[in-house]
Design goal:
It is a single chain. The chain has 145 residues and is α+β, with helices and mostly antiparallel strands. The protein has 2 domains: 71 residues, Nuclear Transport Factor 2, Chain: A (Roll); 63 residues. 25% of the residues lie in helices and 43% in strands. The protein has 3 helices and 8 strands; from the N terminus they run ααββββαββββ. It has an 8-stranded antiparallel beta sheet with strand order 1-2-3-4-5-6-7-8. The chain starts with a helix and ends with a strand.
């Protein structure tokens, strides 16, 4: 029994040491969820902010991020996707409503409570807009800067 406990603790220690130095500030609940969901994650880097905790990592060769509340509750996961992966209705709407804009990046965000959305950075004449697109293809301005 003692050997099993030592082996378990060694495994936990190795797993935790693979994360960035900020891991000491990450809630146990977040680490537990992350290690259960993303067993094959590589290059995990934790970042603790005032209002959330983020882990950046590689999963099956895909760069991803996962967000947790400060108490370790899952907020959502995100990854970059191709513009062409947007719903057809959104593609048509974006091309009509945002003619002349360059689309810099598309982020797929799967929110734990609010569902899936895409966030697109649109740029024209030095003005950037972040557009929010739902899975049905509806487009709205999320923020402008």
């Amino acid at each position: 029994m003692k050997k099993l406990f030592v082996a378990l603790m060694a495994t936990v220690a190795l797993t935790v040491s693979a994360f960035a130095a900020d891991v000491n500030k990450v809630s146990y609940r977040a680490i537990k969820h992350f290690t259960a969901e993303f067993k094959a994650a590589e290059n995990v880097k934790w970042e603790v902010k005032e209002q959330f905790t983020r882990a950046r990592f590689m999963y099956d060769g895909i760069p991803m991020e996962i967000y947790y509340s400060t108490d370790g509750e899952l907020i959502g996961t995100s990854r970059l996707v191709q513009f062409e992966s947007l719903p057809t209705r959104a593609l048509v709407s974006l091309k009509e409503r945002y003619k002349g804009y360059d689309f810099a990046e598309v982020i797929y965000f799967e929110h734990a409570q609010e569902g899936t959305h895409f966030y697109i950075t649109a740029i024209k004449d030095g003005i950037k807009k972040v557009l929010k697109v739902d899975t049905e293809g509806s487009v709205s301005v999320f923020t402008k800067y």
